[in-house]
Design a protein that fits this description.
The complex is a heterodimer of chains A (112) and B (115). Chain A is mostly beta strands. Chain A contains no helices and 9 strands. Chain B is an all-beta fold and 115 residues long. In chain B, strands 2, 4, 5, 6, 9, 10 and 11 form a 7-stranded mixed beta sheet that branches. Chain B has a 4-stranded antiparallel beta sheet with strand order 1-3-8-7, with no helix packed on it. Classes of the chains: A mainly beta (112), B mainly beta (115). At the A-B interface, strand 4 of A face strand 4, strand 5 and strand 10 of B.
């Protein structure tokens, strides 16, 4: 699987936007970019995913670079509930089933 | 409510005593999998199942067994638990096994301590 690189940790003030970066320079043309987050003491939860175009949903926005070698998860207004570990993951189809390979993610702290 | 449930949520056991962690989903998903999460190692896949009676090994299958007799259930079996299986376990499911854009839904986790 293609690898992703994320900062270990980031901080944000409450009610301010947060931009979480992810580098994936070896991404292939069929790889989807997924973001999951894991709140303390909970299982990972889906945030957003995309292939080539920028994506928006009720939780966040995903900005994908034109060359697809990097992406940014945007939380428009951080709340205390957004404090979590955020994982940027690539998945692609191929022989057999696909797998989500979780790295170490970015631990986001939100300061009141 | 669409969900993945796991039982028990917490378990303390002793070395060698067989145990089963249950996982159930109510979304009619084809694909189910088990992960373990350990500090510094992240989430690693143990086993997965693409449909009823179809299972395969993930990255760390040693010491574990699974079965998929019904679509909704995917139990994880530790025949002879050892202390190195002390971990946080997550079950996950998704609609299909071969569409990389599919979302995986995770259970709340089972924290296992093997003495």
């Amino acid at each position: 699987d293609a690898k992703t690189t994320q900062p270990n940790s980031m901080e944000s003030n409450e009610e301010e936007p947060v931009h979480l970066p992810c580098n994936h320079s070896t991404i292939s043309g069929t790889d989807y970019i997924h973001w999951y987050r894991q709140l303390p003491s909970q299982g990972p939860e889906y945030v957003i995913h995309g292939l080539t175009s920028n994506v928006n949903n009720r939780m966040a926005s995903l900005a994908i670079a034109e060359d697809r070698k990097s992406s940014t998860l945007i939380l428009h207004r951080a709340t205390l509930r957004d404090a979590a570990v955020y994982y940027c993951i690539l998945s692609s189809s191929g022989a057999g089933s696909y797998q989500l390979t979780f790295g170490k993610g970015t631990k986001l702290s939100v300061i009141p | 409510e669409a969900q993945v449930t796991q039982n028990p949520r917490y378990l303390i056991t002793v070395t060698g005593k067989k145990l089963t962690v249950t996982c159930s989903q109510n979304m009619n998903h084809e694909y189910m999998s088990w992960y373990r999460q350990d500090p510094g190692l992240g989430l690693r896949q143990i086993y997965y199942s693409m449909n009823v009676e179809v299972t395969d090994k993930g990255d760390v299958p040693e010491g574990y067994k699974v079965s998929r007799k019904e679509k909704r259930n995917f139990p994880l079996i530790l025949e002879s638990p050892s202390p190195n299986q002390t971990s946080l376990y997550f079950c996950a499911s998704s609609l299909s096994y071969n569409l990389p854009q599919e979302t995986q839904y995770f259970g709340p986790g089972t924290r296992l301590l093997v003495l």
